[in-house]
Design goal:
The structure holds 2 protein chains of 2 kinds. By secondary structure, chain A is α+β, with helices and mostly antiparallel strands. Chain A is about 65% helix and about 10% strand. Chain B has a 5-stranded mixed β-barrel with strand order 2-3-4-6-5. Classes of the chains: A alpha+beta, B alpha/beta. Strand 1 of chain A pairs antiparallel with strand 1 of chain B.
Amino acid sequence: MIDIGYFALCLSLAASAYAVFASLAGAHRRHEGLIRSGENAALAITALYTVAVSGLWYAILTKDFQVQYVAENTSLHQPMQYVIASLWGGQNGSILFWGWVLTAYSGAAILLNRYRYRALMPYAVSVLAGSCFFFAILNIFVADPFVRLPFTPADGNGLNPILQHPYMAIHPPLLYAGMVGMTVPFAFGIAALIAGQLDNTWLRAMRRWLLIPWTFLGAGLLLGGKWAYVELGWGGYWGWDPVENASLMPWLAATALLHSVMIQERKGMLKVWNMVLLFFTFGMTIFGTFLTRSGIVSSVHAFAQSNVGPYFVTYLVVILVGSAILLIRRLPELKAENHLESFASRESAFLLNNWILLALLFAVLWGTMFPVISEGVTGEKITVGAPFFNQVSIPMGLVLLFLTGAGPLFAWRRTSTDNFRRNFIVPAVWFVVSCVILLLLGVTDFYALMSLSLCGFVTGSIVLEFSRGIAARRRTAHESTLVALATLVAKSRRRYGGYLVHVSMLLLFVGFTGNAFSTDREFVLNRGETATIDDYTFTFETMAFGEDDSKAVSAAALRLERDGQFLSTMMPERHFYKRAEQNTTEVSIYSRLFEDVYVIMVGSAQDSASAKFHIYVNPLVGCVWWGAVLFVLSSLWTMWPSARDRRMARLDRESAQAASWDAVPSPS
Amino acid sequence: MRNKLAIGSLVAALGIIALIMMNVQQSAAHHMTLDDLLGRSGSDLQGRRIQLAGSTVVPGTIEWDEYRHRPVFLITDGERQMQVRYTGNAVLPDTFQDRAQVVMEGRLAADGDRFEADVVMAKCPSKYEGQNYDDHRATVGDAPTAPGS
């Protein structure tokens, strides 16, 4: 199987080279057969990569330790679900998996869009196949997962114990799907430039293909946070580590693009800006990969460092230079059809949103790269930590939060004073009322107060939008309130689905703000002793010990009470993994509606009569996870094709199948 | 409109740059390796926040306190060694163990021969892949002999 996998990998290299060539030549000579052949070759890459991945997976599942990658990343006693996850648990396998996800995207893009966007497809195929070519080269020449050892070890090393967690098993694939998926919108952008088809058609194709990786990336980021929270045991979920930042940055760029695309669709403005933003988003995914894999900045993440760095830099330079040349060639055709007419307009709100998102991205980039920058400038390497990122991102985040609510209140082109007053009065009242309630509750931290009050403002704005939509439907279609609401959400998915995404952002902001109120203390307790933090009392009752094949476990039992009332018995644990000789802390979390009690057993004395605990009370953190769930659901809803979309797609397909390539306008 | 827009963006950009610049100083730490640290005279490092990277924990030197919370340990860059005392509150990461690569933040102790770290980040020895087969392959050669699956 290993040999078949390697062979398939080599074939995919050839197939991707051919697909690039055939598609470009076919489009140039307007030769239908060649174009078809290019598409089919690109589909073949998907099949070949699937074979290659299956080969490695087979070796992993059968524990063929003669294969170096298998020996390094699995072991005999590893639970099944983490054996599966070993495919992407190490460097070489993750690059193979990465390539496979890319070919899956490219296959899906070809199958779904080859009739709909005919003029664009050959070029898009060549970009996609070109990226596959790059990954095939990496896998064959630099990061070969199929290398054999000259002997067969009796047992493998196994996946790192702290990665043996359900969230961690699915977190990397989600991030990969997010990072890799940006290749498809990028391919459509390049195709539009080469083909000279710069109307809204490519923009629609690009937008939908952008939403998918954007959702994956967001979900991956939040899931990584959840993993850190329940597994790493420092009470938080986001540490501004370079590796985290590397996946946050493309998400920020893509978020900006998703918004500014709307201005281009409606007003024909920002055409160049959107192209640049698209290339930048894609470039950020490559740069992020480079950052995490090259070891250029030090990170806590146990990422395998290897010699793939220079390859990614070359790839990045080729992409940026190539797309810049194409863009400059088409500049005259990318003139704006309209200009900004007023600051008090939807366009300005979107523009400001773009600036803030990019400024935030720039700040994160600056902080992440500061060691490299400062070393280049002053010769001294200076690093900046989480306080920098928090100080910078909080004010920008608040402006973004304000815009989330204010954007929809502005009219396109210009907002009259009358309109402005009518639209802003309701959200402003929400803002003031939230502010007063919070002050009465004793919230005095300025940022927390602003953040939560602005959340009130945005809620007001979203409620206003929904109630206006419902009122309109009740008037015109004579529907009841509930039916009207359902129809709005079902029919105008982009608009009202988008508002639901805003609600999820709101929940996230509420959750982030909770950090301002969290408290933590450290206690040494003898058995039977009691400690108090906020309204909670903890009684250290007993300790228990256990053991299985792979690890030894010690657990403490703590009785959690609030106002004399029993809530739960908390069981923080420490695990000792025998093979890796590594200790892990298993946090115990008791979630109430508005706050989490989070207990870590730091360690216990030799006779286990006393132990040291670190206890956090984290208010509002649940909102982050609920926000994450809503984010995924509402994004999926927004991009899911409605009945009308599906009908249009079928019509396109039927008419395109009938017509020949000659009907497609040639690139100028 | 265009001029107003240009002025507006300029003001916004300056504000953001100021925000970044003001805060960069706040949490800055000087990144050094053990070599840099020992090479410099103690006085100009006193009181400065330092990020110390590129060394590993000397096996068998981790001395925990009673509750396995704040250890004292030796680090080495392969040639020289230095004592480190952990003073932070957070529970040390699970990856902190013998031979782990450590990145630490803190200050040089007053007497200059100990590092007081309040942040310790640790990477597993040689990443996830506990045992390093690469060296073995280099010495034995790369020819797969036995037929695989």
